[in-house]
Cupin 2 conserved barrel domain protein
Amino acid sequence: MTRIDVRDLPPSERHATIHAEFADLDRGETLELVNDHEPKPFFYELQAEDPTFDAESYEAEQRGPEEFVARFPKTTASSVVHLDDLDETPHAVVFPDSEPKTVRLRLAAGESIPEHQHPDRQIVLYLVSGEMKLDVGDETRDIETGDVVRFDGEQEVAPHATTDSTALLVLAPRATDAD
C-alpha cells in the first residue's frame, strides 16, 4: 500500500500531489492518505474525475485531533453493467465519461433512428437481440441476433428495427496520423 502524508504540504499543492500518487497506482492497489482533516472534498473530486477509483471501498478514520487516515483504492477489474439495468431509451450510455464510448440501443419493432453521423469515430455494432435493417452510406444490410457490423462514423447511418431489437455500439475515437 502506498502511503502519503500531506499535512506538511501547502493546501494549494495537496490535491495535485494526491492525484499524481493515485495515478501511479496499479489496479487493485490502495493509496493511504494522512491528512489534517477528513478528505471528503478530494473523495468527491476523485469520484467525479477518475473511473478507476473504487468509491464504494473508500475508508476514513480519525486517529487524532489533526490526523485523519483515508484509503483510496483503485478498482481491481473493469466495470460491469447489465444492459437490462439501463433505463434510458432508445439509447443509454453504458460507461459514462469513458472511452471508447459504449451505447446500448433499444428499438421496438418498426422504430428507427434518423440518418446521422458520428464524425471522428469508428463504429462497431453488435446486435444482441432482434432483427434490423441498417442503412450505412449507400448500403442497406439485414442484420440479426449475433451479427457484428463495423463501419466508419463519417458515413450516414440509420438503424430500423424489424423486430424488437437491442444492440451494443462501441464508438471508438478515430486514430490520428500521429497515432
In short: The CA atoms of residues 85 and 94 lie 10 Å apart.
